[in-house]
Specification:
With about 350 residues, the chain is mainly β. It is built from two helices and 26 strands. The chain folds into two domains: about 5-185, Jelly Rolls; about 200-360, Jelly Rolls (Sandwich). The chain has an eight-stranded antiparallel sheet with strand order 1-14-3-9-10-11-6-7, with no helix packed on it. The longest helix is centred in the N-terminal third of the chain and has 7 residues, at about 15-20.
Length: about 350
Amino acid sequence: MSLPYLQPYLGLSNGLNTLHAAGAGGGIGGWVELARTTLGSNGDNIDVSSLPDKRYYMVLANTTCSGLARHGLRYNSDSGTNYSWRYSDNGTPDAYNVSLNRIVIQADNTATDEFSVTYIANKSDKEKLSYSQDIKQIATGAGTAPARMETVGKHAQTSNPISTITLFNTESGDYASGSECVVLGWDPADTHTNNFWEELDSVTLSSSNSRILSNVFTSKKYIWIQVFGKAVNDAANWRFRVGYNTIDTGSNYANRQSQNGSADVTPTSDSKCDFGTSGLTVNTGAFANIFAINNASNEKLFITHSVKEETAGATTAPVRTEGVHKWANTSNQFNIIEIETNNGTSNFDTGSTMRIWGAD
């Protein structure tokens, strides 16, 4: 399966990068909003229906809860035992379930905020395959680490494309009013010019520096950040911080992360979010993908994945890091971000770059 969500950074010339660079009307194609449902009152399900047939879907789900709740997915209102999934909960070894009536994408059922990003391959004559990343707040405040879950799922249906996606609460409570599910679509043949993701800022270092600092940007509810960094010299862990107009360096962050499949670590009441748990070595690069839900009156939730080159050549495997993070601020949307090395002596090389997209 191709990975169109990487193309705006990598600059592949399918029209997606052109549109991001030029703004609305600057090109064709890209992720377009197909439909969304925002609850006006408490409810168990969030149905997004009448979806056009697109080869790929990206599903953004953000919920608050009244009572116990956890995310599940159903397609085309199918409540039969036609789903199976494999998952890792908070970095534990994989487990799986088969022949059930939904795909569960979060194991924790606490009545707290939740955010997930799901990719779905939607070919009418093939089983529908999905990959989900989910963060659950667990408790307010930087003293508690969030929960995370990664899930791959399939819907054993090979007759029709997906036309309805349901965010399905598997527990006894409800999704609260304001909870939302947004479905984006992407297809190689798309010719629209109303891309969902708007470029908010782009920063490329013209000289070596210990951090890549964004400009203050017009913030949005949904944020997508991509970073490529190369080391001038040995560097400690990558980390990021956010803020409203200025970077927050206080102990207002909580984290959960894993490197190369190791057991999760959970730094809390921290002054930053580490998202690359080992340093870059000289002249090596790393790439990171970050999604965030950025509601002003809620804690800000982040999902991060990064890959580090390690050393040049095919004889050394790269390093991967997966994590979820939160910023315990409930007063403002963040509108500035920095990516930094955390030993105070190492620098990112010239050409290291960060790009930020957003949407409401």
